Amino acid sequence: MFHIPTLEELNLIGALPAIALATWAVILLVIDLFIPKDRKQTTAWLALGGIVFAFAANLLVFNNNSDAFSGLYRADAFTGMLNIVILGAAALGVLLSMDYLKRAGIERGEFYALLLLSVVGMMFMAGANDLIVVFVALELLSIPLYVLTAFRAPELKSEEAGLKYFILGAFSSAFFVYGAALIYGATGTTQLNGVFDAIGMALSGEGQALALLLLGSGLVLVGLGFKVAVVPFHAWTPDVYEGAPTPLTAFMSVGSKTAGFAALLRIMVVGLPTLMVQMTDVTAAWQTTVWLIAAATLILGNFVALAQTNIKRLLAYSSIAHAGYILMAVAAAGTTGVADMAVQSALIYLLAYMFTNIGAFAVALAIEKDDGTGTDLKDFIGLSRSRPVLALMMAVFMLSLTGIPLTGGFIGKFFVFRATLEAGLVPLAIIGVLTSVVSAFYYIRVVVNMYLTDGAGDPAVGATARVNWATYIAFAGTLLIGVLPVLVTALSDRVVLSALIP
Amino acid sequence: MDATGFSLITLVLFLPMVGFTILMFMREEQASQIRWTALGVSIVTFVASLLLWAGFDSSQPGLQMVQRWDWLPTYGISYYVGIDGLSLLLVILTTFIMPLAILSSFRAHVLHERGREKLYYMFMMLLEWAMIGVFVVQDLMIFYIFWEITLVPMYFLIGIWGAEKRVYAAVKFFLYTMAGSILMLLAILYVGLQAGTFALPEIIANVQNGTLVFPGDGLFSTQSFLFLGFLIAFAIKVPIWPLHSWLPDAHVQAPTAGSVILAGVLLKMGTYGIVRFCLPMFPDASVQWAPIIATLAVIGIIYGAWVSYAQQDVKKLVAYSSVSHLGFVVLGIFALNAQGLSGATLQMVNHGLSTGGLFLLVGMLYERRHTKDINAYGGIWKVMPLLGGISLFVTLSSMGLPGLNGFIGEFTILMGTFGSDVLGFFFALFATLGVILAAVYMLYMFQKVFMGEVTKPENENLEPLHWQEIAVMIPLIIAILWIGLQPAPFFQTMDASVNALVTHVQEHFPTVAQLP
User: Fold this and answer.
1) Which of B309, B344, B273, B343 minimizes the C-alpha distance to B445?
2) Helices within B263-313 (DSSP H only)
3) CA-to-CA distance for B112 and B105, rounded, in angstroms?
């Protein structure tokens, strides 16, 4: 009865980067047993090697444009570009971790293996073309992160963060899975192309299917909304970001957001673009909801960030705000004909955000003391005198997060606003630009402390060679995207998710 | 017009960045070399910009020395530079003011006190690059990039080397101007999406031949909203009353060179933007909104003059006078005729020279006495006759004495306003009131500072002018006299461009449109 697929049908080559990294993560777990306690850096280098290999493999299959696992996994430019973001974040995260774990006294080999597993989860999420795969990938990316968040245990803040993340994460998975079940109920399939095909028929039938689909897509939105931290599902973010080890915060602030948005975009654009209340509508039924969530996220994230005094918490709220900007693109994708433009803008935003945000966390990590303190905004006072290069890079990261031109952040905002306007969501675009003025206020405060306030200046003990390298890479990436955005659009222009839509 | 070759404009534009790069690799201890390098680069840039003028054909109304390179080809964004009569004068104003601002910083007390001279001159170079960029770029997106970039160095110049409340002033400056310009970004994106390109000449051509239509019926049409999206950004920069409140803070707190650049060039970016973008892209809205904006401009003229008169802080007095003077420029622009527009353009240059000069002079006084309180002075002429003489000259220029530059600009603007189809007699009348008030507050300031007996013992032994200070003022004096006595070459440079623009806008006058 069961047809056993052949290797050709599985087309494993399409998913090669993720499969290779998964294998390597498991092998690394074993290898690590034989690496003596005082030489755990070796594990880190091996993990980095795996990431670099996966990165190269990803470039090889970038133009593959095929289905793997009989259509459960889609290897297209969308997956390829997201993998670049995820693997970039992972590589920088490992570079930041090496010396940090040592000085924080938590250097254990499983950190890297767990990190790799989480990366694999993210990569599968980027390529997932089936609700079940999305769910499995979601769990694979989340569970290692729960453990890693609590990696500073027995320190109270870290334990609290881990537990909080775990409980809320479990809730969000439940929401997601229930939503997926309802979509399955309405369409009879979990495969996204199948959902798309079935949706027209389901909607033209009796009224129940519409209700199931609306509820289902709403619950999927809630589940993934937790992962990407949008209002009102954001409450875990500041505590988790503050309590987790800083390199992990840097990695997951980008990685899990990227994976969450990948799934959200794929489900909404491939599966549910024609979910419309009236057949005559030009916008998908979920657009208004996403739009409202985006607006609320932008407003709350940016205004609450104003009140923060700790850089990690500030960046946590800023990451909520940035989720709002990316969600603007998701909302724009709901208008017929704008989907691809919107998806591309979200990818560009994520890539720029990856460099900028990890860079900002890297500087925060550099001035952090060994016991995890010293990340208050006032610790930045005088940094431009004690560490001029570090301060300059931090200033550029802050300007990029604000969206000042010649930085990656501006390019990201430019494309997102463009898509939003094209989709006709003018009020949302206006909220977006006005809240970025608000954001200027708190990002500028970091610059004020570094440059305009006189003080002794932090020696930045954490700025070891590897941390510096990670910061340089992030800095170069931020500026390069800002000055030559054509490098990014050359990749993003290939991304076509809506090919199936008639 | 599609030129892919190299243009002299690119050279002028990127010379400051060359300076920036050289300075980056110098060491903080080489203070003297750093200063002279910055000055040298800015002078070379000025000379190069004179070559632009030499190669400029003033009979051509369109863009010249065009260069266009793709930046984001699939999205219709290109590095697109070119100059016409309007931008040429402002480019030269920029490159002319910069060496003076840099030279005036050599002896600035605050630089020696707070140090970081390398950073200071690097920001100066970055600022010059961005300002020239604003004036030469013909692509909306790239324009926006340069426009926003000017914020960053100016923010640091005010914030690091400013007076006591510098942080407040710097942050206010940054947020206030960013708030305005970010709405412009949306308007730019909208225009770009509608037009399919961000190249300004193509957009204007399409507006002219009717292939690109922004519905412009009434004060609250699509075109009006786009017009306002641009105008608010520019109005904050100018500043047009009531959006001026950042200006006194920024001016008073900025170091002398910062104030000079702020008044001399940065404010002109606003008025230039109105002329370059608002008028040709949104002619209907410009015509409809002209009386409203002109009313605000006249209010600004009188308000600025009135508030200036009440100031006890010399720098604040000059700052508010800028609100008044820029009101004239805006009034001239929205007269929407050739006289008004050419007067306004010349007045932009004039204000840069006169007010820039005033800030330099106030700076010289401040270096000696470390106060900006008008009552701390008095009888300075007796102690420093040379400074007094120069100050009298610049003050007279600023209040529009015939024979000097200010008179030419203001007179042409008033003539234009008087003969304007959209404004008319009353606007000219109230604006003339502003000219009289200017004489009042300017002479009041001059009298309080320079005339009478020396009442304060601290003022008795002031250090005479250093040769560098004299060297800063001489070019300004020459320029003020030159424009005052021989304005024809300046008008000639811009005439063709102004006429082309005015003809385009006047086609959208209601009466003309109704003709068969």
Assistant:
1) B309
2) 267-273, 279-281, 283-309
3) 10
Integer Cα distance of B238 and B244 in angstroms: 8
Structure tokens at A64: 């593959």
Task: Give the number of other Cβ atoms within 10 Å of residue A106's Cβ.
Answer: 16
Dihedral sign (CA A364, A367, A373, A377): negative
Is any Cβ of chain A less than 8 angstroms from the Cβ of B1? no
Question: B50-88: b or e for each residue (b if 16 or more CB lie within 10 Å)?
Answer: eebeeeeebeebebbbbbbeebbeebbbbbbbbbbbbbb
User: What part of B 65-94 touches A (C-beta under 8 Å)?
Assistant: 70-75
Of the candidates B213, B351, B333, the one whose C-alpha atom is nearest the C-alpha of residue B284 is B213
- Angle of helix B117-136 relative to helix B85-105, nearest 10 degrees, comes to 170
Please name which of B360, B400, B389 lies closest in space to residue B450, comparing C-alpha atoms: B389
Q: What is the pLDDT of residues A406-433, one digit of tens each?
A: 999 999 999 999 999 988 898 999 999 9
Q: Name the burial class of residue B443, with classes exposed (0-12), middle (13-18) and buried (19+) by CB atoms within 10 angstroms of its CB.
A: middle
Q: Which residues contact B98 (CB under 8 A, 6 or more apart)?
A: B16, B42, B45, B46, B124, B128, B261
Q: Taking an 8 Å Cβ-Cβ cutoff, which residues of chain A contact chain B?
A: 399, 403-406, 410, 414, 417-418, 421-422, 426, 429-430, 433-434, 436-437, 440-441, 444, 448, 451-453, 485-486, 489, 493
Cα separation of B125 and A386, whole Å?
24
**B435/B424 Cα distance (integer angstroms):** 17
* Number of Cβ within a 10 Å radius of residue B382: 15
pLDDT tens profile B56-81: 888 888 888 888 888 888 888 888 88
Q: What is the dihedral of CA B70, B76, B77, B81, to 10 degrees?
A: 70
Name the region of A69 (left: φ>0; alpha: ψ -120 to 50; beta: rest): left
pLDDT (tens digit per residue) in A305-331: 999 899 999 999 999 999 999 999 999
User: CA angle A20-A26-A27, nearest 5°?
Assistant: 85
Residue whose entry in the numeric block shows the structure tokens 């008033």: B414
Inter-chain residue contact A434 with B148, CB threshold 8 Å: no
**Could you report the predicted ipTM of this complex, rounded to two decimals?**
0.89
Q: Which residues of A touch B167 (CB under 8 A)?
A: 448, 452-453
Are A440 and B175 an interchain contact pair (Cβ–Cβ within 8 Å)? yes
Q: Which two tokens stand for residue B105?
A: 């910083």
Residue of B nearest to A422 (CA): B193
